[in-house]
Amino acid sequence: MSVHSPRPRVVTNGDVRLAVYEQGNPDGETLVLVHGWPDTHELWGHVIAHLEDRFRIVSYDTRGAGASSRPTAVSAYALPLLAGDLFAVIDAVSPDAPVHVLAHDWGAVETWEAVCEPGAGERIASYTSVSGPNLDHLGAWMRRRLAERRPAGPLAQAIASGYTVLFQIPVVGTLPFRLGLSRIWPTFLRFFDRMDPALVRPAPTLRADMITGLKRYRANIRPRLRHPRERRTDVPVQLIVDRRDLAVRPVGYEDTGRWVSNLRRRELPAGHWSPISHSADVARLTAEFVGDLRAETATDSADGASA
After folding, report:
1. CA neighbor of 271 nearest in space, from 251, 254, 247
2. pTM of the model
3. What class is the 7-301 domain?
């Protein structure tokens, strides 16, 4: 885990208070980390240990998780509002320079929403996505595959995502978490993701985070898959594809290059929670991506100066 204690602060976005934590190299480029469900900022502890000497690292508890606000309405978890939280954090911690973003699971879904917004490149220099698709891209891909009578890929993803149907049913969807799944979470991840349960450090708010976080599924899954929007971005994007991911199948990224002008794809022999099980690899790929982009920018600047 990180050897330096994070410095906490609060960033507000309207009525929502976001618990934000800063650590690492204060002179390094800023890297913002966005966790998914049912995690908190603590998901990134193993990754941060590999990056804190190089980057100024900012992580935060997304709305509904950890020490951040927990709005009660399902509509408060719609993707535009979640993307607004990310932008609020970026504007607070790095008002004068764009940041790099690394995000996982629903954090990745939220960041996809942000990078496809107009002007996103002025605030986000690069985006590394782990196990969280753009829901509009996914919906458009499923529609294309079905129209071409090639249903195998969408069927595989639908089977993998079958649990999300349960999550969208009020009361019923919360039962596994009210009945104690949070108490055996490391053991569950051992069987689901083939990881060492000793690596898993559940947050004390895990049970509440599990239940509140289901509102993300209810607010966004059906609207975005049924009515996908055209969502494009010129922000450089790196996909870290976990080949053994049981929740987000790799085939679902087949069309991502249609929507992203600068796309890199890397694969890991990992399950869904690779930031825990393969933290060194996730950190290395993120740092390499940022370094390569910096080198490309320097080359372009040198070519322009010599022209």
Report:
1. 247
2. 0.93
3. alpha beta
